[in-house]
Protein 1
Amino acid sequence: MRELNWVYYYSNVEKDQNQYTHEECTRVGPVDAKYVKSSNRDFNNNPFIEALPRPRDGNVLLNAYTVPIPSLDADDLSKMSVNEQKATVVSLKNLRPPLSFQKQLEFINYDVIVSSYMLRKCLSKTNNFHCWSFFYTF
């Protein structure tokens, strides 16, 4: 068993904003964690939860999950080679209409991750910053 400790500071982010930029959210690979104080007291001082991006809501959520049908007109289609036409048809597999329960899915996913992270135990805290420790085995 090994103990991990680290120090982290909170980012100043508006309540309706996400602490991560679009570029950071779409990047392949790790990004530096940005911590935002949780509005839920049970989650405060838990770096696992406070580094999670906030769940999306409203139009942001709708735009994230909606992929429209590619626009084509008859002239464009007639100028395409057969392979280009096939590629256009294959691109329809990316079509995603918004689902009526998309918001519930977003929050269920968030809740599942948060529930897992709530099981981590905080061993030490100070007033200026937060030290988080937990034990794990290999």
Protein 2
Amino acid sequence: MRFVGSGLLKTRTRGLPVASLPAYRLAKEQCMAIKYYPSRGEILFCDFEQGGFVKPEMVKNRPVVVVSRRTGGQTCTVVPISGTEPEQNKPWHVLLSDGALPGAWATRTLWAKCDMVTSVGYFRLDRLKTRVNGKRVWQSKQMNRKDLDAVIIGIRSALAIE
């Protein structure tokens, strides 16, 4: 991504030709990559729109839970979190506890989509953006142990691991 004269931002989106966007959309479009190794169970925001993924893969920006251990590398394994209830509830669709995410997400019913487990580079990950007293804050949250254990069981079910 780069700025171009007259306040437009040029960006390559999902492998498609370069598109121009108003500069004010930069904050919405740009992910501020984390600069640390995320811990297992940490809930972050993932930018799946940066390219490399195509439908029916995950292509929207969304919260994720880190399920891999710290390896010291530049990637980690994540499971996407969705507010959309599955059409057919399967063992790999895990209903999360109330308040699993902070801010506006706290009141939503959320599902971990364990069949969509994937490895992503840290450049796709950012802390969750919420508002506290009208001010934007970035935070990460640790998933509670019960939900994390259920997500791991969901992954095993999705991958048919006994």
